[in-house]
Amino acid sequence: MQKRLFIKGNEALAYGAIKAGCRYYFGYPITPQNDIPEYLSRHLAKVEGCFIQAESEVASINMLLGASAAGARAMTSSSSPGISLMQEGISYLAGSELPGVIVNITRSGPGLGGISASQGDYFQATRGGGHGDYRTIVLAPHSVQEMHDLTMLAFDLADSYRNPAVILADAVLGQMQETMEDRPYQPMELSPKDWTLTGASGREPNLIKSLYLKEGAMEKHNWKLFEKYQRMKKEVRYELTREEDAQLMVVAFGTPARVSKTAIRLARTQGLKVGLFRPMTLFPFPAQALLDLSQRVKRFISFEMNTGQMVEDVKLSVARDADVHFYGHPPGSPPVPEELLDAIKKVY
Amino acid sequence: MGKIEVNRERCKACGLCISVCPKKLICFSRAANSQGFYPAEPGPEEECTGCALCAEACPDVAIEVWR
Amino acid sequence: MKQVFKRPQSLKDVPFHFCPGCHHGTIHRLVAEAIDAFNFRERTIGVAGVGCSVFVYEYFHIDVAEAPHGRAPAVATGLKRVRPDRIIFTYQGDGDLASIGMSEIVHTANRGENITVIFVNNTVYGMTGGQMAPTTLLGQQTTTSPYGRNFNQDGYPIRMAEMLATLEGTAFSVRVALNSPANLMKAKKAVRQAFEMQMNDMGFSFVEILSSCPTNWGLNPLKANERVERELIPYFPLGTFKERKESDHL
After folding, report:
1. Where does the pLDDT of residue C250 fall: very low under 50, low under 70, confident under 90, or very high at 90 and above?
2. Contacts of C158 in chain A (CB under 8 A)
3. CA-to-CA distance for A148 and A153, rounded, in angstroms?
4. Same domain, A171 and A296
5. What angle do CA C97, C103, C104 make, to 5 degrees?
6. φ/ψ (deg, to 5) at A231
7. Are C144 and A29 inside 8 Å of each other by CB?
8. Quick one: A230 and A245 in the same domain?
9. Among A100, A331, C11, C167, which one is most buried in terms of CB atoms within 10 A?
10. How many domains does chain A fold into?
11. Contact C174/C186 with Cβ under 8 angstroms?
């Protein structure tokens, strides 16, 4: 029988990172993710890892760049405004084809905003956020178990594609405590890292850069990155709940997805045939799966803790004759199942 | 000859005024305020010199002084 | 009898949200007293940092801008360049000023911007729950230095007042404390002098105030004051590190 832990989301994430071989963490305090650096400041020392509380998020992402270039599994974490500061660094990671895990325990914004959960960073995470033509892998947990499991996956995907991976969680997931199974890390098969900077002894020098000035080189590099993002499509992950006979599908990720599951149970008791489509990868977005589903189901409602972000991707994915509605609960208090049920009834 | 007044609702019972009073005239009240703090309470007026050290030390600007 | 001590006019008559014994309340009052003393409330603009200092706008009867974490000196620069006849001050903690804001404070001082910086040094990150700060002392346990700050792992605590004093642009750099009535009176004078320097166009003025954070130090307010005396002052000595006598502004 699997050992079970009763643990906070942020700590489950940090625990998963260490399990997956992360030995380098660079971060800066910001509510509501401080449990992550605090946990790692205690536990990385126990596995001879390195913890640095950097002077800022700008420094953190650049320390990650260095550690990754040297071949290590490295992670940073922050929340919305801090993630904004990291955008230049993330662009550099993507352009230099470096792995790295960046955790966003989303808070409300824009600006200083507040410390309650939101999903206002969906665009920031999936549309690049920083400058240039790149994407980051984006994973969206919806439980403490997934805070742990998807973190382990993030390290493997980042290494597999030599690309930064973002874990897009929120303040509720970070702060809540649930039981989870202490699942072992099951590594993906990965090729050895022969591109890292370790000193050019007995080999030609390796170069980590994102600058391409020669004629045609930039164009070639951009297409190379594009090909990579196409190959990533096979990493799509999503979860379907009660979709078999659904007349309406809720589309939600993270905390709203949890709330949706209760709302759907309530709806079903009232005879409404509702199901949930829950993306677990926001990039690559499960567009094909949604398109397939929309051949039969013609009504969708995107439920988000913002004023309308993922709904655009849902609209882009579904068949032309499917209707896509939106119910938004901007940050403040967490949403309740009853309000989603009301919204469902309006469009059912 | 001096006098102080403590705003009971602003006082957080930090104890700093009590520690700086040169004549140890201030003490904690036995009645809590609406926040649950037992605020500082001035001592006998005849003894107070109005030195205002208590007011200077108070982080909550809860004390006024007359001399 | 006449009233010899009351709330400064520049300070709103509202309760402070700060923890019992926190020196932020005292420092807010000292700044308000200085603004009252020079009677320039109506031409003063404050810039709040991020941390426990973020609520400055709730407490002062003055115009206030909120800056992103660490960037208050840059925001203040923008304000002062547009409105040179206004009195501009920033109010920042040790994480805000000495960690993420290190570049902004150094360059603002270096440019000799005619603003006043109030630096609240309590050796921890207060608002976010007690993490290590650039001013955390060696051996000090915090939530991100659980084994005590160690110079091999975390480097040494930074002495901001001395460091900024080495810059030509700095006109006034002083360190004070609030742990005793005598030190509090010196702090009051220093804050007043800093604003006076700005009023007289002397250049960049900086007041570092050693403060306590009873909640995150795990000490009651009295013991916290004792810690300031016993541990902070020996490493962060009180005194004036630079005091320009003549303005170098034309």
Report:
1. low
2. none
3. 9
4. no
5. 65
6. -65, -30
7. yes
8. no
9. A100
10. 2
11. no
Distance, in Å, from the CA atom of C50 to the CA atom of C69, rounded to the nearest integer, reads 5
Q: How close B41 comes to chain C (CA, Å)?
A: 16
**pLDDT tens digits, residue range A130-169?**
999 999 999 999 999 999 999 999 999 999 999 999 999 9
Burial class (CB in 10 A: 0-12, 13-18, 19+), C111: middle
Contact B59 C26 (CB under 8 A): yes
The predicted model scores a pTM of 0.92
Q: Which domain holds residue C127?
A: 23-242
Contact yes or no for C222 and B20 at CB 8 A: no
Chains A and C are touching, with contact defined as 3 or more CB–CB pairs separated by less than 8 Å = yes
Helix (H) or strand (E) holding A52: strand A50-53
Residues A46 and A172 in one domain: yes
Looking at the structure, do residues A183 and A275 belong to the same domain, yes or no?
A: no
How many CB atoms lie under 10 A from the CB of residue C22? 26
Check if the beta carbon of residue A61 is closer than 8 Å to that of residue A86: yes
How many structural domains does chain C have? 1
Query: What does the block give as tokens for A118?
Result: 């939101």
pLDDT digits 0-9 by tens, C185-208: 999 999 999 999 999 999 999 999
Domain carrying residue B16: 3-66
Compute φ and ψ for A324, nearest 5 degrees.
Answer: -120, 120
Residues of C in contact with A29 (CB under 8 A): 95, 125, 128-129, 131, 144
Instruction: Please say if the pLDDT value at position C181 is more than 70.
Output: yes
A34-60 mean pLDDT: 97
How many domains is chain B partitioned into structurally? 1
Measured at the CA of C220, the angle between CA C218 and CA C221, to 5 degrees, comes to: 120
Place of tokens 């409404």: A272
For residue B13, what pLDDT band results from cuts at 50, 70 and 90?
A: very high
This complex has an ipTM of 0.96
Given a cut of 70, whether residue A17 has pLDDT beyond it is yes
Contact criterion met (CB below 8 Å) for C221 and C20: yes
Q: Which residues of C touch B55 (CB under 8 A)?
A: 5
Per the CB < 8 Å rule, is C221 touching B16?
Answer: yes
Residue-number span of the structural domain to which A169 is assigned: 4-191+223-234
Cβ of C245 under 8 Å from any chain B Cβ?
no
Kind of pairing between the strands at A274-279 and A248-251? parallel
Residue A1 has pLDDT above 80, yes or no: no
Chain C neighbors of A31, CB-CB under 8 A: 127-129
Cβ contact (<8 Å) for C181 and B52?
no
